[in-house]
Specification:
The protein has 318 residues and is an alpha/beta fold. It is built from 13 helices and 9 strands. The structure holds fructose -6-phosphate (F6R).
């Protein structure tokens, strides 16, 4: 932890970190594969999840985010594998890289170093070096931009440029939102790519504010979780992550879900900014990160340390 940049400092300059990554990362030299696997856990894994959501929305290639040991059983060596680990020492991501080597797959690492960089050097796999000193989850812009620039995602450069502009301004009043989540169990929901952003909110509230949160995706939750609202916990609050000009069928679903299941539950609505999916989704990542830091202050905890994760990793290495 000594010398580590506090999470709250990085959260406050999320837009500046993104702009710096957009300027310093080499201009796009996409890999030619039409199917890629992005292996990564936790704060590093979210980069792959966002890339998968972008590919699902914009097309250009197939991206499968993978957060487990090894690689999916269907991987046969024809894919291109990205092993994304900020520390370079995460067991699951290392085992993904080892599986790629076994399969003879083209692979590369995005990391600050560690055993992952050593493995890549040993096997002549490319390494994108990321600036050290951050908490992995706070380094999202530094991991995401180089990843996106290696993928043949439709219109990605224009999206990176727009995101840089949009992220220069905060997307909402994080302090006011945090006050509504304080002492509550937030259920964070989003449709499409915003379901991935809901997952980021959940992880950031858990890691930074040391508070449990739940997330789910619309429309899927309308087919299961919505029934559970018959007996909600007394401290439940819903956070609705929404895009401007969302399709009418999505807007109708939000309204109908509220009418049938959430009548007596407070709903905090957060609207994304921007035209393109990347800017929109990251505007709400930026807001959620800021909310998690404000909540940490309200909870009287330090956002940066994640002692439990570190202790768990140490135990598993013994
Ligand atoms: C820590 C964090 C964790 C790590 C995860 C994987 O800030 O958010 O979720 O990201 O334990 O570690 P790395 O990212 O080093 O592969």
């Amino acid at each position: 932890m000594a010398g580590m940049i506090p999470v709250e400092k990085d959260v406050a300059r999320f837009g500046a970190l993104f702009a710096a990554a957009a300027t310093t990362t080499p201009q796009p030299q996409p890999c030619s594969a039409t199917s890629v696997i992005v292996a990564g856990m936790g704060g590093s894994g979210i980069a792959g999840r966002l890339a998968q959501a972008l590919a699902e929305r914009c097309g250009g290639l197939r991206v499968s985010a993978w957060s487990d040991y090894g690689l999916p059983a269907w991987a046969d060596g024809s894919e291109h594998v990205f092993a994304v680990s900020y520390s370079g020492n995460t067991a699951e991501t290392l085992s993904g890289a080892e599986r790629a080597i076994e399969l003879g797959t083209n692979w590369e690492a995005i990391t600050t170093g560690g055993r992952l960089a050593a493995l890549a050097h040993e096997h002549s796999a490319p390494v994108t070096a990321v600036e050290p000193g951050h908490q992995p989850r706070a380094a999202l812009p530094l991991l995401l931009v180089p990843l996106l620039r290696r993928l043949t995602l439709s219109g990605i450069e224009a999206q990176v440029a727009e995101a840089t502009e949009v992220l220069a301004e905060p997307a909402g009043d994080a302090g006011a939102i945090a006050a509504q989540l304080n002492g509550k169990l937030p259920f964070i929901y989003g449709a499409g790519g915003l379901a991935t952003v809901a997952y980021r909110w959940r992880c950031q509230i858990e890691e930074n504010a040391k508070q449990l949160a739940v997330h789910h995706a619309l429309p899927e939750l309308d087919h299961n979780e919505i029934v559970g609202w018959a007996a909600p916990p007394g401290n439940a609050v819903i956070v609705a992550l929404r895009e401007p000009d969302e399709p009418a069928r999505v807007a109708a679903r939000w309204e109908a879900s509220r009418a049938v299941a959430w009548r007596d539950v407070p709903v905090v609505e957060c609207r994304a900014h921007g035209k393109n999916p990347l800017a929109r989704w990251l505007s709400l990542v930026q807001l959620g990160d800021a909310v998690s830091v404000e909540l940490a202050h309200l909870n009287g905890v330090e956002p940066t340390p994640v002692v439990v994760i570190e202790e768990l990793k140490r135990r598993l290495e013994e």
